Amino acid sequence: MKLYHSPKAPNPERVTNFLKVKGKLDAVEIEEISIMKQEHKTDEYRNVSPFAQVPALVLDDGTKLTESRAICTYFEGIFPEPNLMGKDPKEKALIEMWDRRIELMLFMQFATWFRNAHEAMAPLEVPQSAEAAAKGEKNAKGFVKKLDQHLVGNDFVAANRFSIADISLFIACGFAGVMKWQPHKELDNLGAWYARAGEKLAG
User: Fold this and answer.
1) CB atoms within 10 A of CB 199
2) pLDDT tens-place string over residues 182-202
3) Could you give the CA distance from residue 13 to residue 6 in angstroms, rounded to a whole number?
4) What does each C-alpha distance from 73 to 39, 86, 158 come to in angstroms?
5) What would the pLDDT profile of 130-184 be if each residue is shown by its tens digit?
6) Which domains does the chain have, with CATH numbers?
């Protein structure tokens, strides 16, 4: 298998951290793709990922997978332990529910803010929109406040245990630093959770 990865980008990091927790990071060949150099938009890479998305996974039989959640689902299937996506229907639903909330209400909102406000993103987001940036910032910050309240009495995000939802949130909190925002240092419950999740990711 070959995994196309872009250092420091949140969705690729989500996949590599998922593999790291599984203890299977060395089970795949990793090829780095520079988003800032727009290597993901080359004809060669579009043969792997038609929508120019990173990460992408090419299986030994030539099957190509994109979307970080789908790639993690594949890895969950072939590397079942430790379980990170739920062991029964209830756990699976709770973990997916919170993981999707983190994707849609934090990841995507922050991405809108970042892409429209950070000067480094100007070549990729044409034109940048201050209005879109402000809305994305407001939505992302509003979500983490609600999440902070959810973490009262909950050690982890979903199903009372460490899961892909915690990996997604941990990556999002770390990446938020590019906009000089560290929500886990502003909110007490989120901060305590961040320390617990960091221990799990450190192994």
Assistant:
1) 10
2) 999 999 999 999 999 999 999
3) 8
4) 26, 11, 17
5) 999 999 999 999 999 999 999 999 999 999 999 999 999 999 999 999 999 999 9
6) 2-78 (3.40.30.10), 89-202 (1.20.1050.10)
**Torsion angle in degrees (nearest 10) through CA of 175, 176, 177, 178:** 80
For 170, the token pair is 């941990």
What six digits make up the tokens of 56? 């992408």
Residue 27 main-chain phi, psi, to 5 deg? -85, -10
DSSP structure string for 138-164: HHHHHHHHHHHHHTTT-SSSBTTB--H
Say how far apart CA 121 and CA 75 lie, in whole Å.
31
Going by C-alpha positions, the residue among 19, 29, 14 that lies closest to residue 175 is: 14
Distance in angstroms between the alpha carbons of the first and the last residue of the chain: 24
